[in-house]
Design a protein that fits this description.
Elements lengths: L6 E10 L5 E10 L7 E2 L10 H17 L5 E2 L4 H13 L28 H14 L2 H6 L18 H12 L6 H5 L6 H26 L6 H19 L6
Parallel strand pairs: 3-4
Antiparallel strand pairs: 1-2
Protein name: Glutamate dehydrogenase 1, mitochondrial
Keywords: Oxidoreductase
InterPro entries: Aminoacid_DH-like_N_sf, Glu/Leu/Phe/Val/Trp_DH_dimer, NAD(P)-bd_dom_sf
C-alpha cells in the first residue's frame, strides 16, 4: 500500500530556446502519497530523466518528510524556476488567493522565499551528526569519545551541502547559548529556521536511536529510519481508514 506511486501526470509543454524558437517537450509529475497534503517535491529539467526516476524521487520525498515529522506527502529546480511558477500562478488562477506565494517552496528571497532555507540541508546533516556524536553509547561502540573534539570529517565533494555543513562545524557551538534558545521576541526569520531545524533533527535522531534499540539494530541507523518512516505513514493510512478499503 505504501510502496506504489499514487498519481502520475504527463503531458506536453512548450519551451522557448535562446534563439527564439519554440519546442514542445514531454514532462511528467508524480505524487507518491497523499497521506498528508499538500505534496512536497521539486522540479527537474533534464533530458535524461525517466518516468521511473520521477516516481522514485517522489517516494523518497515521502520517506524524507516522514522521518523528520514534516507533514507533507511526497511529490517530484532551481530558485529561478520556482519563482517563475509563483509568478505564473499569481497572474492566472491565483490572483485572488491571499496565499498565492506559498504555492511552491524554494523561491528567491525577493519572491517570498524564507531566509535561511539555503543552508538547511547542510545544517540538517550537522545537527543529525551532532546528536549521535554526543551520545556516549554510540561513540563507545565505535571506540571514540563523545563530542566533536579530535574528530576529522571527510566530504566527498565541496558543493552546496558540504560547504554549509563545514560552516556549521566550524562556527556553530555544539550547545546553543541559553540566550539564543530563549530569544523569541524580535527573532530574525533565519534564526527561527535554524532553531527549528536543530529541534527537528534532535527529535528525529532520538526517535531513530529508540527504534534501533527497540529492534536491536545496533548501528544500522538507516534501517531504523526506514522503520520509523513506514510506521508513521502507515499510522496515518490506518487512522484515515485507507487500510480497510
Amino acid at each position: 500500500m505504501i510502496k506504489p506511486c499514487n498519481y502520475l501526470l504527463s503531458g506536453p509543454f512548450p519551451i522557448q530556446r535562446k534563439d527564439g524558437s519554440w519546442e514542445v517537450m514531454e514532462g511528467c509529475g508524480a505524487q507518491h502519497s497523499q497521506h498528508h497534503t499538500p505534496c512536497k517535491g521539486g522540479i527537474w529539467y533534464s533530458t535524461d530523466v525517466s518516468v521511473g526516476e520521477v516516481k522514485a524521487l517522489a517516494s523518497l520525498m515521502t520517506y524524507k518528510c516522514a522521518v523528520v515529522d514534516v507533514s507533507f506527502g511526497g511529490a517530484k529546480a532551481g530558485e529561478r524556476e520556482m519563482s517563475w511558477i509563483v509568478d505564473t500562478y499569481i497572474s492566472t488562477i491565483g490572483h485572488y488567493d491571499i496565499n498565492a506565494h506559498a504555492c511552491v517552496t524554494g523561491k528567491l528571497i525577493g519572491q517570498g522565499g524564507i531566509h535561511g532555507w539555503i543552508s538547511v540541508t547542510g545544517g540538517g546533516v550537522f545537527h543529525g551528526i551532532e546528536n549521535f556524536i554526543n551520545e556516549a553509547s554510540y561513540m563507545s561502540i565505535l571506540g571514540m569519545t563523545p563530542g566533536f573534539g579530535d574528530k576529522t570529517f571527510v566530504v566527498q565533494s565541496f558543493e552546496g551541502l558540504e560547504r554549509k555543513f563545514g560552516k556549521h562545524v566550524r562556527t556553530i557551538p555544539i550547545v546553543p547559548k541559553a540566550e539564543f534558545q530563549d530569544r523569541i521576541l524580535g527573532a530574525l526569520e533565519k534564526d527561527i529556521v535554524h532553531s527549528g531545524l536543530a529541534y527537528t533533527m534532535e527529535h528525529s535522531a532520538r526517535r531513530i536511536m529508540h527504534t534501533a534499540v527497540k529492534y536491536n539494530l545496533g548501528l544500522d541507523l538507516r534501517t531504523a529510519a526506514d522503520v520509523n518512516t513506514i510506521e508513521k505513514v502507515f499510522k496515518v493510512y490506518s487512522e484515515a481508514g485507507v487500510t480497510f478499503m
